[in-house]
Amino acid sequence: MGGLNMDYTVLVGGEAGQGMDTFANLLGKILKRAGFHVFSKSDYMSRVRGGHNFIQIRFSNKPIYAHTEKVDIVFALNEETVEQHLTRLKENGIVITDEGIGKDKDLFHLPLLETAKALRNSRVYTTIGLGAILKYYGLPLEIGEEVIREGFNEKLYKVNINALRAGYGMVDSEYSLPTLEDKHILINGNQAVGLGAIAAGCKFYCGYPMTPSTGVLNYIAAHANEMGIAVDQVEDEVAALNMALGASYAGVRAMTGSSGGGFALMVEALSLAGIIEVPVVVINVQRPGPATGFPTRTEQADLRFIIHAGHGEFPRMVIALRDQEDAFYQTARAFNIAEKYQIPVLLMSDQYLADSTTTREPFDFSKIKIERRISGEEGVLDQEYKRYKFTEDGISPRILPGKIPGQVVLVDSDEHDEWGNITESDEIRIKMVNKRMKKFEGLKEEVEEPWLLGDEKPENLIVSWGSTYGPVREAVEKLIEEGISIGALVFGDIWPLPTKKLMEISKFAKRIIDVEQNATAQLDSLIREELLIKSTDKILKYDGRPFSGDELYTRLKEVL
Prior knowledge:
- Helix content is 38%, strand content 21%.
- The protein has 19 helices and 20 strands.
- The longest helix has 21 residues, at 426-446.
């Protein structure tokens, strides 16, 4: 077969510690190198060894934005993978596994373990399977060898190449897929956030490891030396945000991040950021709660929490990241907004986006403008610097401590006057609250409208946010092909809530369908609160697993 469909998914499953990540990384790089679009999604348990984990690698000659329910190949590293995923095979799908697994079933048995032992390295088991899969699809062995040479040290790459060749010789080609020009980068959501921060001139990142946010910390740390970034793994999340505020006060662009539980610990310091008016960027990579919840799964249940976190009233901006490309550009944008308004900007990602790896056009670094908002001597009026000077827009001149002789930069967590001195004055309190809240009016003009997918005047309108973008896009495209009038607004900027496009398009819609990964339809309630627009239907998912385009399409058909 020549692969007319050109949309395939390989699922590898087994226990933690069996080498699935290495297999998936190698296969993804090989497919990208062969010119395919790739989307890889992980499903893993919260343990170092054992349990049932699996990774899906989807590839196509056309752009893809989500994973699928059905798969073409199951590469089973144990019996449990066969039992759990056999029903997910497409009509012509196959299970590739070792001779010792599923002996009573009609599977594609190969001498994987025996061959690995002959190569004197049982860990190359998965590389043998990789070679077999490349041959099955008719993909060049040379590309696989090239990727392995780049990914392993001299001691390991030779045995892995031998393993790849052994697997390549075990099967016949069922397909003859053409290789295409490699025009893309391969990146996951956490890496895209880290890269966006680096591009924006972030010079300080600190955090405490917490799944699934740790990848941001790891990525920036890996490039810290070459990019001149100070990275600190701190003792807890309370310290993380306080240290980021200290770095920002001193004049460097600073960022920290965690997941929901860690962000909860930051909340007192978030209020500190609000009153001392120091810019900072914080990312919450969501996972299901409450408490420890599902540590390695995905959810969108922190929206209301993020918008209202902190005691007292102070402005902040909340931006949900929709895909890997959006994660890069929005992270960079967040630093400029934080510095312009001297506020915390809160980014929202989730496990699905964080861990999903996909191909995208190379990011355009020329689009990233670093807009520093640091005042010089012009910020000192009346011979004495007023850190919290009352202004028309609420934004006071910001000078850096120690940069202008004779001037002191006072900040205080208590209410304060224009200079930064503690005050108990009710009159000044009212002025200061009003000053800070004026920034919110500026932010309302700053927000970007949600992305519109599908029809511009749809009879059926989907409303969603963040990482649901990919599944929503694929479902909408499929429904439009069927002649259904449907469109979707996928929100990135969420607070302040952009209202213009939703107000305009909702006028045409007979049905408004809210799609979210939480149990309480949090965006829907926010829209109702801000605009008095109520959805007619809700499609909610909160089992810790992300929507696929297939699943969302099916559930949309049920309400249309």
